[in-house]
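Allow me, if you will, to draw on your knowledge of protein folds for a short while. I have a record of one protein: its chain in single-letter code and its fold written as discrete structure tokens. Kindly check, if you would, that the fold set down in the tokens agrees with what the sequence suggests. Thank you for your consideration; the sequence and its tokens are set out here:
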Amino acid sequence: MAKPNGDEHPMLREGLGRLRGKVAIITGANSGIGRATARLFAREGASVVCCDIQETMTPRVDELIIGEGGEATFLNVNVTAKGGPEEMVQTAIARYGGVDILYNNAGGGIRKQAHEFTDDEWNFIMDLNLNAIQRSVRAVVPHFLEKGSGNIGSGGQALYCWRGTVGVVKPTFRPGSLETFTRLLPDGVCVVPRYVGVRAGTEAEFDEAIAVAESRVAELAEFGVDLVVIQGVPPIMLRGYRFDGELTERLTRQYAVPVLTATTAQVEAFRALEVRTMVILSYIQGAMNAKFAAFIEQAGFTVTGIEEIRGVDFADSAKSRSR
């Protein structure tokens, strides 16, 4: 049996069987987001074809999934190579009888100054982050159309780069290419372009995220704003209401501007409404809801239940088509 994974994340929850009987292909599956996605899909009941060009991370993702009681096959394949995407689809059909989900996760950048990279390096970025996705979609969509259904998700480097990073050549072409491409796919196939800004969830990264937020507060204070609300606050929320309060109070004193986080803003709203007891309705699923409920209870409220909102269509906000 594979060794237990030592870097569990709160969002990597136990499955509810929502993908039972489905077959998923995941590229870049042996590390990072792809690895976590493969494990979560397997926990939800899917049979997973784990595709990656590297096998150095141990335990290998398919071994880890099988050790957790799931079903997975590993395929060492280069998604940028001719025939690579077709091999992925053929493997899924031969091993599991079909394909229901394609998740395009493989991607990457080159750490160089913009004036230093070569044509070959630029072409590599385009091949990995855009062309490989087009070829993978081209390989799987005929199968989806034949069976009358299918799901495509695209994430990784190709979608999170809203803007560049100094010293790194990244696929910041997303708005004009991949998003447009997803709109052109045939009806009957659900396409979800995933805008990713994921961190590993370590203490060091929490500290880094909080430091970045503080630097933004300092910048805004110089402009004389009346209030700063820090959005996207899991690194703060996961440390509890007391930590949140101490941080915002310190920032308020230091920069002479009222500072709240999104969660403390909600707490203040509840108090203004004289709320004491509540049921939380949440679009988020899994362990993060329990963390939020604990935060609210630490603020002095009673949470009697958490209802996860399921079956919500995010197609419009994700710029996708789902029929």
